[in-house]
Design the sequence.
C-alpha cells in the first residue's frame, strides 16, 4: 500500500504528512507500520490521535504531535496545512456512514493529498474477528451473529463498519468529489482484494 501511494505521490522528500489515527499500541507488529517509511523517505511527519499517544515521542523523536481532541471534533489543524494526510485502517472504526464521510472530508480539509486505507468488506476473511464470510451478510444480520458469538464490541457500528469499493467511491464523491481528483485501488491478499486505498489530490 505504501509503494502504491508513493508511486502516485511522486517526490515526497521534504513534504509534510499528517498521520490521522496513530495508535498508542507498541506491541503489534503492524501498529503504525508506515510511520518509519515516511521518515526514511525524508518526510516531515506529524501525528494525531484522539487517544493519548505521548508515549510515542521517544519512538518518533522527530515527529510533531497534534493535541488530542474528541473524535466528534474537527482535526486540530488549519485548512491545507499538510502536503499529504494519511489515515490507515481508521475509516472502518469511526462509526456510521455519515461519520465515515465526515472523516474523509476532514482529512482532505487539512491536506492537499489524501492516502487512506481500509479493509475490503468483500474479502473472504474479516481480519478483526478472524471469522470468514459472515461479514458478507446484511450488516444487521452480521452484527446479530457477532453478538451471539460473544463478539459484542465488533458488533457495534461505532467500532466496526466495513466498506466495499463501490461504497468507498460513493463516499469520496460526497466528501471531496468537487475539489479532488481521486481513485480507489485494491490490494490482494489470500486470493482476493483485501484492502482498499483511496488516493486523492487537490485540483486547485
Sequence:
Amino acid at each position: 500500500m505504501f509503494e502504491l501511494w508513493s508511486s502516485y505521490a511522486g517526490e515526497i522528500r521534504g513534504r509534510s504528512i499528517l498521520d490521522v489515527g496513530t495508535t498508542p499500541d507498541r506491541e503489534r507488529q503492524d501498529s503504525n507500520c508506515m510511520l518509519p517509511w515516511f521518515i526514511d523517505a525524508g518526510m516531515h511527519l506529524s501525528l494525531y490521535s484522539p487517544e493519548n499517544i505521548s508515549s510515542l515521542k521517544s519512538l518518533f523523536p522527530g515527529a510533531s504531535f497534534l493535541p488530542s481532541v474528541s473524535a466528534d471534533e474537527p482535526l486540530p489543524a488549519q485548512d491545507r496545512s499538510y502536503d499529504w494526510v494519511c489515515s490507515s485502517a481508521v475509516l472502518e472504526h469511526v462509526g456510521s456512514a455519515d461519520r465515515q464521510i465526515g472523516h474523509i472530508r476532514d482529512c482532505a480539509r487539512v491536506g492537499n493529498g489524501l492516502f487512506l486505507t481500509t479493509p475490503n468488506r468483500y474479502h473472504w476473511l474479516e481480519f478483526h474477528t478472524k471469522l470468514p464470510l459472515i461479514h458478507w451478510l446484511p450488516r444487521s444480520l452480521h452484527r446479530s451473529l457477532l453478538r451471539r458469538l460473544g463478539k459484542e464490541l465488533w458488533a457495534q457500528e461505532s467500532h466496526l463498519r466495513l466498506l466495499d469499493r463501490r461504497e468507498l467511491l460513493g463516499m469520496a464523491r460526497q466528501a471531496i468529489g468537487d475539489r479532488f481528483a481521486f481513485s480507489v485501488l485494491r490490494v490482494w491478499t489470500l486470493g482476493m482484494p483485501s484492502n482498499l486505498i483511496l488516493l486523492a489530490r487537490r485540483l486547485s
